Amino acid sequence: MELFLDTAKVEEIKAGLETGCIDGVTTNPTLISECGKKFEATIMEIAELVKESNVKWIVNAEVTQVESSTAMITQGIYLSKLHQNIVVKLPATIEGITAASCLARKNIRTNVTLCFSVNQALLAAKSGASYVSPFVGRLDDIGENGTELIKQIRIAYNNYKINTKILAASIRSPFHVSAMALIGADVATIPFSIFEKMFKHPLTDNGMMRFKSDWETFTARSEIKQVNFTR
Ligand code: E4P
């Protein structure tokens, strides 16, 4: 499963990249507005980080002109020209999916976002979208089962050998991430705070402390001296 960071904060993206475990980034108008910087400048700043990473790396930029499919197509074309690694995010409405179909015919990669049903995921696939983003946490928030939706979309896509990638979004916990991997989501996009938590296990920390203290006790008692590995 690929891991994307769900953030527009450049410092979080840099930190994620350093670990070598991050394959891309998703942004949305809310995340960009929280940075307090201009939309285009933020997207460009993130896209430029691609140079320091591998070529597969992608940046999801969401349309903000959503009043009609024509407006989304115009903005989508504009966004796609900003950088070769940009994928255009469009909402799972009739206008958004119509725009996604038009952009796909122009070989522009799209991500149909705000997906909350199998039917929306099927329509996203019909449009030729590269990704569909079902929102797991927001379904859980209203008492539905977001994880179950990912399972159902996986089954429907497998039934018809659909290539559109399932990008599990609105991930709220490390548990969600592992659940997505077990179901077979293609990508999970996660906030940086959850990415950090994925590294954590109390037994790892305890084990490290035990190894360190046992080794220090042993070397203090014996002739063996600590080796200087910096030579
Ligand atoms: C996905 O692309 C969205 O940016 C994101 O996952 C939304 O998550 P939220 O429900 O936590 O806002």
Summarize, please:
The chain is an alpha/beta fold and 231 residues long.
Structural overview:
It is a single chain. The chain has 231 residues and is α/β, with parallel strands linked by helices. It has helices spanning 10-19, 29-35, 39-48, 69-82, 94-105, 118-126, 136-141, 146-159, 174-183, 192-198, 202-221, and strands at residues 2-6, 24-26, 58-62, 86-91, 110-115, 131-134, 165-168, 187-190. Helix 4 packs across helix 5 (94-105) and helix 8 (146-159) packs parallel to helix 9. The protein starts with a strand and ends in a 10-residue tail after the last helix. It has one domain (2-201): Alpha-Beta Barrel (TIM Barrel). Strands 1-2-3-4-5-6-7-8 form an eight-stranded parallel barrel, surrounded by eight helices. Helix 1 links the parallel strand 1 (2-6) and strand 2 (24-26). It contains eleven helices and eight strands. Helices cover 52% and strands 16% of the residues. It binds erythose-4-phosphate. Erythose-4-phosphate binds next to helix 7.
